[in-house]
Amino acid sequence: MDLDSIDNLLSKRMNKLGLNNEFQAAYVLSQANALADGRFEAVRFLHGNLTLSCPSSIAAQEIKFIEKDLINKINEKIKPQQIKRISYRIKS
Fold first, then answer.
1. Which domain holds residue 53?
2. Which 8-state DSSP code applies to residue 37?
3. Number of domain units in the chain
């Protein structure tokens, strides 16, 4: 059995169980967190919107400056490109 068929079987099974969106969201979050370097934590991905939790408003503003680059870097890793925008939460 080749990898293509394993990928197809896994995808079909996840769709049948209704887990495909959850799996994709978890994968997007893991890839975003791999690029975080402690600056943020990716906490939610839904309908193309990635939500980041930042330790302060200053940290959120710093990430906002590199937002397009960050979106491109994550999208390169998770093909097909899924992230359209980023929203921010400030940890309290």
1. 3-90
2. T
3. 1
Residue 18's CATH number: 3.30.300
For 49, the 3-state DSSP assignment is: strand
Does the model's pTM come out above 0.85?
no
Spatial separation of the C-alpha atoms in residues 3 and 15, rounded to whole Å: 18
Range 51-56 average pLDDT: 96
State both tokens at 77.
């890793």
Report the chain's terminal Cα–Cα distance, integer Å.
Answer: 50
Nearest to 31, CA basis, from 61, 74, 2, 64: 74
Q: Rounding to the nearest 10 degrees, give the CA dihedral for residues 70, 64, 66, 81.
A: 30
Q: How far apart are CA 77 and CA 75, in angstroms?
A: 5
Q: What is the pLDDT of residue 4?
A: 64
3-class state of residue 63 by DSSP: helix
> How far, in Å, CA of 81 to CA of 73, rounded?
10
